[in-house]
Amino acid sequence: MPKCVVAISGKRKSGKDYCTKLIKEALTLKDVNVSVVGISNSLKEQFATINGLNYAELLTDGSYKEQFRKEMIEWGEKARIKDSGLFCRSAIDSVIDSDVVIVSDCRRSTDYEFFTSKYSTLTVRIEASENDRKQRGFQFVAGIDDAVSECGLDDYECDLVLYNSTGKDLQTQIDIIVLKIISLTKMN
Ligand SMILES: Nc1ncnc2c1ncn2[C@@H]1O[C@H](COP(=O)(O)OP(=O)(O)OP(=O)(O)O)[C@@H](O)[C@H]1O
């Protein structure tokens, strides 16, 4: 069972994956046994298994994923109504022996409820200016960026906020988060 779950959220192109990678590298340098999982990957894996599809292709942004996108979203919503923790559970079950698990894409309050109720969890919000996000490829899409799947955690009070914008000292913030994670692993 993980000693610490780092549950990351943030708007599109805020840098969730980028910061996850930096946190993972910094923890690995300190000999911490750490894994990274994604809730949306867990959804895609289950959808692929049930429908006999190519999971690896569903992970890419190509036309294969686009063919199944709508159906996959609808299936995921129905599955979440029955069991809101389904994809969180299957994501973390795959790495249950790691001391630290970073969940790189929490989007809904039910995701945070799942992890905080079961594990010693550090909730981390990645913040970036809209300008920086746009430079990283963000474009507002109605129906996506104003939906619960993107805004569900906007008002959640996370334990830590990481400012990943131009002019912010990201590395110092990563160092602080890493110390906090290590202290949590020592308490459990
Ligand atoms: N501090 C940074 N310095 C340089 N490049 C960055 C920084 N933060 C993010 N990026 C780049 O911006 C792009 C988007 O970042 P990333 O994929 O981490 O965002 P995300 O929040 O995971 O996006 P999405 O919500 O679409 O999954 C990537 O190409 C990443 O390498």
Nearest-angstrom radius of gyration? 16 Å
Listed once per kind, the bound small molecules are: adenosine-5'-triphosphate
Number of helical stretches of at least 4 residues: 9
Identify the CATH class of the domain at 4-40 and 97-187: Alpha Beta
What is the total tally of β strands? 5
The CA-CA distance between the termini, in Å, is 10 Å
Q: Name the helicity range.
A: 40-55%
Query: What is the percentage of strand-forming residues?
Result: 5-15%
Unreliable stretches covering 5 or more consecutive residues: none
Oligomer: single chain
Encode the helix/strand succession as letters.
EHEHHHHEHEHHEH
Q: What is the annotated CATH architecture of the domain at 4-40 and 97-187?
A: 3-Layer(aba) Sandwich
> What structural class do you assign from the helix and strand content?
alpha/beta
Mean pLDDT: 96
CATH superfamily of the domain at 4-40 and 97-187: P-loop containing nucleotide triphosphate hydrolases
Subcellular location: Cytoplasm, Cytosol
InterPro entries: P-loop_NTPase (IPR027417), Pmev_kin_anim (IPR005919)
Binding site for substrate: 164
Pathway: Isoprenoid biosynthesis; isopentenyl diphosphate biosynthesis via mevalonate pathway; isopentenyl diphosphate from (R)-mevalonate: step 2/3
Would you kindly provide a written description of the structure presented here, covering whatever features stand out?
- This protein has 188 residues and is α/β, with parallel strands linked by helices.
- The protein has a domain at 4-40 and 97-187: 3-Layer(aba) Sandwich (Rossmann fold).
- Helix content is 52%, strand content 14%.
- α1 crosses α9 and α2 (39-51) crosses α5 (86-93).
- The mean pLDDT is 96.
- The structure holds adenosine-5'-triphosphate.
- Residues 10, 12-18, 136, 164, 170 line the site of adenosine-5'-triphosphate.
